[in-house]
Amino acid sequence: MTLDPRHLLQLSVIIELGSFSLAAEQLHLTQPALSRNMKILEDRVGALLIDRSNKKVQATEVGRALAAQGHSIRMATNQASEHARDVSEGKAGLLRIGVPPMISEYLLSALITDFLKDNPNVTCVVTSTLMLDLIDKLELGQLDVVIGPLVLIDESRGLQAQQLWSDSVNIFCRKGHPLTQYAQVSTQQLRGEKWIIHPKRSFLRAQMDSYLISAGLTEIGVAIEVDSPISIIALVQSSNYLTMLPSLPVQSLVDAGQLCVVPFLQSDMPTRHAGLITRTTDMRTLLLDRFVSYLMQTCPGRMGSGLKPGA
């Protein structure tokens, strides 16, 4: 016995309103058509579903059971329609975001959370790893957008970028480090320090190596190589080791007195542009457009400006 789900839905409306005429009006059917559908449903079930002996429509026991199923179908249909509308308007769907660990931890987490508060029918899947790996995943279509440094963008690989912010990469130490007592630190003083460095495949490592060499530090004393920027911060906070980090992600830690910028002014600090990276071959969804627009409007106010040495 196969029942037409549309007939079950119609039955639920009839029972709910207690009237064939009102139900027909709500369902945009003629009353004869609705009555005919109920007769078909009763024939399929082999039992009366509606007691027609009274002026007010009343359901039989079997009718009430099937009307409950019809109500569930109606609710599911309404929800599906609402979801489809939200998706078409960019208010629902799946958003796959790739973000390097430090930007994810200290900048984007709050922004993504706020975006989801305003868009409760959106689901975000956030992947946090090195930029090289994120770009690979983006090229393979495993991510919708990457948010990070823009130096790795190659238009010949079908990538495009929108800048969100710029900041500098600075030398950091713990609060109370001996170097913080100086108004200006010399290259010679840095030669005597131990450093925590980033992994070789990291863009931060390349920037750090290039900058220190240009500043006259062709060799440094490496204490630890760590593949997690979050771990690097914890190690710096609990030791006398130095490291280099982008300033904006750790600005809140500096403001809270948990990190300090080493006042090394011998050479201009390297700058870093960061933003959104997408594939040129992808058709941008309305959801991605909404997210991009949200970040373009929100990031400048949230991220402020770079840090000053000695902060």
TrEMBL record:
* Protein name, as recorded: HTH lysR-type domain-containing protein
Protein's UniProt keywords contain Hydrolase: no
**What are the residue boundaries of the HTH lysR-type domain, all occurrences included?**
3-60
Instruction: State the PANTHER family in the record.
Output: HTH-TYPE TRANSCRIPTIONAL REGULATOR YBHD, NITROGEN ASSIMILATION TRANSCRIPTIONAL ACTIVATOR-RELATED
Keywords attached to this Swiss-Prot or TrEMBL record, sorted alphabetically, are: DNA-binding, Transcription, Transcription regulation
Q: Which Pfam families match?
A: HTH_1, LysR_substrate
Q: Which GO terms describe its molecular function?
A: DNA binding; DNA-binding transcription factor activity
PROSITE patterns reported for this sequence: HTH_LYSR
A single GO CC term for this protein reads: cytosol
Q: Which family does it belong to?
A: Belongs to the LysR transcriptional regulatory family.
